Amino acid sequence: MKLLAIDTATEALSLALLDGEMLHTRHALMPRQHAEQVLPWIDQLLAEADIGREQLDAVAVGRGPGGFTGVRLGVSLAQGIAFGLDRPLFAESSLAALAGQAQASAGQRVLAAIDARMGELYLGAFKIDQAGLPRLIGEEWLAAVDQAELPAEGAWIGVGSGFAAAEGKLSQRWQAGLVRSDSDQYPSAAVIARLAAGRYRAGERPESALVEPAYLRNKVAQTLLERGQPLPRMPAGL
């Protein structure tokens, strides 16, 4: 199968193209450059694999949580590609895409934390399965850095920018329950591609290319207009 995966929910622009067992990737930190770079990167990945867009079997996207503009960009772009090609669109958690970066072994538990700004965190608890993929425990949630609690006792591996927020306060508060933490990791489209490919191979075919972004905040980022920020725009050339 051939599957394109996109995640633009955080400061990282992450793309992956799964071609059978071969995985082609692009991943880099580039705040505020996603809209300019995402389409050229997609074209580069497809050219590298010698695959035309019409040869794709499916598209996958990180649905968030993350920055409002980034989440909307990734979801809108993936919807446009999937709809234009009449291909299934798989939506995966950006926190799961982050948990998959924790270098954890099967059976270990991972706490993924993304800095949500304004003193808050996007959080998700995961357990690594036998295939090395993260599986959500319970539900993802939003919490203030000062109030976030470990979801359960025992050993956890922490990953994500949330562990650097507020001068690393989360790592300090959870020190007794953390085996280790890595605040330098961001959601990976390679993980999204593997999660979506598993669903595709299991016979799942989403009936609609419409994806509901996961913001977790009831009032999304205090609204962009209130904060004097421009609304997200689609990259030219879609």
From TrEMBL:
Gene Ontology, cellular component aspect: cytosol
Pfam families for the chain: TsaD
GO biological process assignments: tRNA threonylcarbamoyladenosine modification
Cited SUPFAM superfamilies: Actin-like ATPase domain
Domain Gcp-like residue range list: 31-151
InterPro entries: ATPase_NBD, Gcp-like_dom, T6A_TsaB
Record CDD domains: ASKHA_NBD_TsaB
Family stated for the protein in its record: Belongs to the KAE1 / TsaD family. TsaB subfamily.
Protein's UniProt name: tRNA threonylcarbamoyladenosine biosynthesis protein TsaB
Source taxonomy: Bacteria, Pseudomonadati, Pseudomonadota, Gammaproteobacteria, Lysobacterales
